[in-house]
Amino acid sequence: MRLVIVTGMSGAGKTIALKMLEDLGFYCVDNLPVPLIEAFADLVMQQPSAHDQVALGIDIRSGEELPRLQNVLERWKGDAVPHEILFLDCSDEILIKRYKETRRSHPLAGKGRVDGGIRLERQRLAFLKEEADVIIDTSQLLTRELRQELEKIFLENRRFQNLFITVLSFGFKYGIPADADLVFDVRFLPNPYYVEGLRSHTGREPEVQAYVHRGGTADVFLGKLYDMMEFLIPNYVQEGKNQLVIAVGCTGGKHRSVAVAEALYAYLSRHEELGLKIEHRDIEKDSIRKK
Predict the structure, then answer these.
(1) What is the pLDDT of residues 156-188, one digit of tens each?
(2) Which residues are within 8 A (CB) of 169 and not within 5 positions of it... i.e. 6 or more apart?
(3) Minimal CA–CA distance to 86: which of 176, 21, 31, 11?
(4) Measured over all CA atoms, what is the biggest interatomic distance in the chain, rounded to whole angstroms?
(5) Spatial distance between the Cα atoms of 4 and 53, rounded to a whole number of angstroms
(6) Distance of CA 48 to CAs 24, 53, 75, 84, 103, Å?
(7) Which candidate, 173, 164, 259, 177, places its Cα nearest to that of 210?
(8) Residue range 207-240, pLDDT digits in tens
(9) What is the pTM for the complete model shown?
(10) Distances (CA, A) of 81 to 1, 57, 72, 210, 229
């Protein structure tokens, strides 16, 4: 039997994740009182044929009972009770934005500010994050992308290293992405913008990519970039980093940065244990501005 505790920050997507797991065949129970968790787990384990995949939603709504869950987890470890913890995380900035958009109040904010409630919630959930088997940062994830990650982990049973990488192309003339962890400037590469037949095309297209790679400089750069990723990623995983945004920039964000980002994304895709997405922030901005 597979028992998964689904928890995390309020507003990070726990309810959505539970619904997705239900679609994947899990029997889901949300906000079960902590004192009933052990009895419930014993019951379903005695009848594994009835529910062989179970997900329990536990969060800050458990209130004063939440610390008792730590004792439950310790007993399960001692008794070798199989279980997993899925922790949904999100940056404070995105959580605040989501609360403002939905006009909901944070469960711990009371009459105070949302950021105070978030800070207090992080403190109270810290023990669950430390024990988590899977941590997914939803700061940059669309709903369909979260579903894809959950399918990889709980349907395809792929190994997951708790690091989600966003490869992001951008144009320097539109500003460096505020959430970028690593920024690479590829304006030194051949620029298809000055080729009449390529100007209207993008770095997603083979002819543009071939032009960017002409002369071999792009290949040398990518080789060094790949080596850097092979060094950095395991160290980020070891440090406990959950979200990594790699930004690749050129002047307008349409040709060179897109081509390099596509190449980096293809290379990183070989690491199936990583969460991965690609985004081209400014790829259409030039054409929009000209209309």
Answers:
(1) 887 777 789 999 999 999 999 999 999 999 999
(2) 203, 247, 248, 249, 250, 253, 257, 258, 260, 261, 278, 279, 280, 281, 282, 283
(3) 21
(4) 71
(5) 8
(6) 17, 8, 20, 16, 41
(7) 259
(8) 999 999 999 999 999 999 999 999 999 999 888 8
(9) 0.74
(10) 10, 18, 10, 55, 37
